[in-house]
Amino acid sequence: MSGAVLVAVAAAIGNLLQGWDNATIAGAVLYIKREFELESEPTIEGLIVAMSLIGATCITTCSGGISDWLGRRPMLIISSVLYCLSGLVMLWSPNVYILLLARLLDGFGVGLAVTLVPVYISETAPPEIRGLLNTLPQFTGSIGMFLSYCMVFGMSLTDLPNWRMMLGVLSIPSLIYFALTVFFLPESPRWLVSKGRMREAKEVLQRLRGREDVAGEMALLVEGLGVGGETSIEEYIIGPANEDIEDQDISADKDQIKLYGPEQGLSWVARPVTGQSTLGAVSRHGSLASQSALGLVDPLVTLFGSVHEKVPETGSMRSTLFPHFGSMFSVGGNQARNEEWDDDIVPREGEDYQSDGGSGVSDDNLHSPLISRQTTSLDKDIVPAAHGTLTSLRHGSLMQSTTGEQVGSMGIGGGWQIAWQLSEKEGPDGKKQGGFKRIYLHQQGTPGSMRGSLVSLPGTEIPTDNEYVQAAALVSEPALYSSELMKQHPVGAAMVHPAEAVKGPSWKDLFEPGVKHALAVGIGIQLLQQFSGINGVLYYTPQILEQAGVGVLLSNLGISSSSASLLISGITTLLMLPSIAVAMRLMDVAGRRSLLLTTIPVLIISLVVLVIGSVVDMGNVVHAAISTVSVVLYFCFFVMGFGPIPNILCAEIFPTRVRGICIAICALTFWICDIIVTYSLPVLLKSVGLAGVFGMYAVVCVISWVFVFLKVPETKGMPLEVITEFFSVGAKQAAAAKNN
Nearest 10 degrees: CA dihedral of 145, 150, 151, 153? Predict the structure, then answer.
């Protein structure tokens, strides 16, 4: 996964430049005021700082739609050019009006980077480390702030500090960022698939994953083209193909999905559970009923939680039920590759996503598809559409990577597996028609727990010498399935080429229940983040540290008050870095939701202590010590949770086709709230005082915790397309529960 990591690090340099710019203007404005004599014109002084926010807000309104049209990479290139150009103009700036223009250009670059870097990283990162990589923008932004404070502090010690040089230095790292975006960063594979550019997407995925076989993930990206659709949640029992499960709630063979392995004669069968005889069914429906009965916890949260509660330990599938099939629910395997068995089904170069309808190759010659083969006439007479994709999508063999590791082509990350099922159904005229289902499978327990759950329920029996696995399944119609083509080809599953299935983003897609639900979560979390007090604490930090005696200590060292303020801010930023590093480690282990629920209470406690310290007279030393500890704790726990996670969540929960537009809406919320909080802070300090301001922030943090508990699901380790399917299902469940 080194390719994806390097690409994420390179993309995150855009946020380093944002952090660099924020810190530089905070120090340079002290000297800009003196040169342009702005002490009597606070409006112009405020505009110099705020023009970047205004520019970011303006560009955000159109960045999403343009990125869906042009692509993610061109927008990052434009961002780097704007950074560089603004740095050069600030270096020149003969008067305050040119400086304001430069700050506006800088805001355009900031807005593009902040909005699109998380999207780009989410679309290129593997699910298992997506949270870690998407915390990089927060980390690099803090590094940029620290380096900038160090630079500005060093310049402030000179006899004549040059603010133009402080601001103009931005153009140097911007050139590095420009070179990386042009020569190193690839386009997002999900965006390429959304435009029908399959070959380019495959090449990018091969580079990012470091292996040749990316068929499973390519199939996943194609399935992500749809928005909404009818999706159902089912449960399957997976076991050896030659074994029988004696359970009246497991459906007959006609509905089973046969999963073929890499060696001849090695296969398993997934049988759908039609009742609630399994532990998973009982626990899922029971937890939904118990939590949703109160009408408080969103069923979507419970739905996501049911997946994560049952995640098995790594390797359990490989070591028990599937000792020879490493691709089923894990990344790698240990068995030797059977060359003769695989060669017939490896697609040749240049044959990607081509029709298998006219090639003369029947289904019976595909020895190891990861797809159902029904015992019906459809098996012999499949007639796919002229641009069908069955060959490449059904490819389920193991391939040998460059490192010698075996990788399963139908594994889509995070323990999820993609499969397809052919079926027969009666049409309106009574004739039988071929149907086609796409199924996301996910193991929900160890084989032992599966056996125990069946035996423990009354009326069920299962052989004790065999092992089975319980799997959850999201079942829906494939994105490439065409009802129009079904009318032309009544036998078999009609599939269109991905390029023909591509549709541009549409505003009506935003009103699809799953997208609306995701927008409510995204907008809510961004709004609450900005009103949780980070700007107020940043504003108050120098004053608190001054009271703690840091200022006196620095003045005794011969450091001026301006330089001391910069040094204090740099030290504060430095304290954030270890906390962000811890968050990077925990993001894919504990998860986003768990981190928020754990860190927000610390923010509440810190703010309450600051309120008490402002109201109660404790003495200067005690007050300074308690306030300093509270501020440090607030910063450290904010950057572990509420800092990076809103952007991470917003980059994960929207369908590919409307991701750019939805991200722009959430980012616009962020910038508007940022402006409101920044400009309302001085007014609030005068009207309700410091204790009142921190008290308001503490109340917002309490509301934030309740919002996260009730509305924000856990998305760690799940492919983006699976997350959006869950939102679609959860939104419809919530609507049904409300109607009932």
Answer: 120
